[in-house]
């Protein structure tokens, strides 16, 4: 009996140590994510508002995405830490029971809808460039719609949350209702937006590929016409396109930049007649090439943002589908998997500013300028 108690004590000590290190790791990640998310998303908003040429429809939608991520950092992460410390009790009161977790779901919905709106805006701008860009009113309506749809989708969840046995828990009227809501949330929060985004970016990619092929074809044709300076005559002899045949047979001064000397002998003197050399062929449109390169870079950045979003939210989607439609509760590591899913949602809130800084020169310069100015002002305050 004593040995058994000793083994149990050792086991309990090991489990306690394991969960302690798990919590330390979790809190460390929360802290890093919180700092990066707050600083990064605030910088995104400031750069866009302080740079006149960046005040575009797409960037205002990026502001909406940054606000969603900022809400996750400011509202969800601190309270989640409090709940983990106070577990298994609910220390935040009945009102927060109906606000906290629905708010997290709401901003996640808003991020999904905003990314879908950005993809449709890119589709409209690239595939149908003759259509006018969204006005300020239309952009405001789009942003308001993302929040309104997110609120409608999260409302049933907020209504079923109640304080039960000292903790905030769901109280659905029927077991099938929670299954239907979980599946509906997966479809409208994750699957459907990603389907729309995938379709829009495939269409944009096809359009950009066609544009690149057309520009390359035009440049190739123009390059041949401007670089080849000789042709073969009927006798198989090379005659310059840039000089008439009389120039080849007579000794004339070197041709000028756009004119050739057609030399004729008159009274023993060489007479030079200036005639047009050739008409320049239409060159490649440099503005069009520059616009294509810029659009392609923007598309790469946006596709990367969506890819990270899909990856970061996938574990949380899987864990709740498994919980409602499978046997997740019987898996011994389910709670760890659930924690991992929540952490990945939080990580998504801080990754976008890092992607903007790494893949977009405008944001990178804006971030650098703001940080340098703030650092100088901070240094001058102590001088």
Q: How is this structure best described in words?
A:
- This protein is mainly alpha-helical and 383 residues long.
- Helices cover 73% and strands 8% of the residues.
- The protein has helices at residues 2-50, 57-86, 93-97, 100-127, 136-160, 175-227, 245-249, 286-325, 334-359, 361-380, and strands at residues 161-164, 167-170, 230-232, 238-240, 259-266, 269-276.
- The strands form three sheets. A two-stranded antiparallel ribbon has the order 1-2. Strands 3-4 form a two-stranded antiparallel sheet.
- It is globular.
Number-wise, the strands total 6
Taken from the alpha-carbon principal axes, the silhouette is: globular
Report mean pLDDT, rounded to a whole number.
78
Taken in chain order, the helices and strands follow as HHHHHEEHEEHEEHHH
**Quaternary state, please?**
single chain
Which strand-content bin applies to the residues?
A: 5-15%
Described by strand count, sense and barrel closure, the largest sheet is: 2 strands, antiparallel
Domain G-protein coupled receptors family 1 profile: 40-356
Membrane topology: Multi-pass membrane protein
Subcellular location: Membrane
Protein name: G-protein coupled receptors family 1 profile domain-containing protein
Question: What key attributes describe this structure?
Answer:
383 residues, mainly alpha, 73% helix, globular, disordered N terminus
Please outline what is shown here.
This protein is mainly alpha-helical and 383 residues long. The chain is built from 10 helices and 6 strands, in the order αααααββαββαββααα. It has helices at 2-50, 57-86, 93-97, 100-127, 136-160, 175-227, 245-249, 286-325, 334-359, 361-380, and strands at residues 161-164, 167-170, 230-232, 238-240, 259-266, 269-276.
């Amino acid at each position: 009996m004593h040995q058994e108690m000793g083994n149990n004590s050792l086991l309990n000590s090991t489990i306690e140590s394991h969960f302690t290190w798990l919590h330390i790791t979790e809190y460390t990640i929360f802290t890093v994510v919180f700092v990066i998310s707050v600083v990064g998303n605030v910088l995104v908003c400031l750069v866009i508002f302080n740079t006149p040429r960046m005040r575009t429809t797409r960037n205002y939608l990026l502001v909406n995405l940054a606000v969603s991520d900022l809400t996750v950092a400011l509202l969800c992460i601190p309270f989640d830490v409090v709940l983990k410390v106070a577990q298994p009790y609910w220390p935040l009161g009945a009102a927060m029971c109906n606000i906290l977790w629905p708010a997290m779901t709401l901003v996640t919905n808003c991020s999904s809808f905003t990314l879908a709106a950005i993809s449709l805006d890119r589709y409209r701008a690239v595939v149908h460039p003759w259509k006018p860009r969204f006005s300020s009113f239309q952009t405001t309506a789009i942003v308001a719609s993302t929040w309104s749809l997110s609120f409608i989708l999260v409302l049933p969840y907020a209504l079923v949350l109640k304080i039960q046995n000292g903790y905030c828990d769901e109280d659905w009227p029927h077991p099938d209702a929670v299954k239907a809501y979980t599946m509906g949330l997966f479809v409208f929060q994750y699957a459907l937006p990603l389907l729309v985004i995938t379709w829009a970016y495939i269409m944009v990619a096809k359009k950009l590929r066609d544009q690149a092929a057309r520009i390359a074809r035009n440049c190739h044709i123009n390059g041949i016409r401007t670089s080849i300076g000789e042709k073969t005559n009927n006798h198989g002899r090379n005659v310059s396109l840039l000089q008439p045949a009389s120039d080849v047979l007579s000794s004339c001064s070197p041709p000028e930049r756009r004119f050739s000397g057609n030399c004729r002998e008159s009274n023993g003197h060489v007479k030079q007649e200036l005639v047009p050399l050739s008409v320049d062929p239409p060159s490649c449109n440099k503005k069009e090439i520059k616009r294509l390169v810029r659009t392609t870079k923007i598309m790469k950045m946006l596709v990367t943002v969506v890819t990270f979003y899909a990856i970061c939210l996938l574990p949380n989607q899987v864990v709740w589908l498994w919980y409602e439609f499978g046997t997740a509760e019987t898996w011994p590591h389910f709670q760890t998997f659930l924690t991992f899913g929540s952490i990945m949602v939080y990580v998504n809130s801080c990754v976008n500013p890092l992607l903007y800084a790494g893949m977009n020169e405008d944001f990178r310069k804006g971030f650098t300028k703001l940080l340098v100015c703030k650092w100088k002002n901070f240094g001058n305050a102590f001088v």
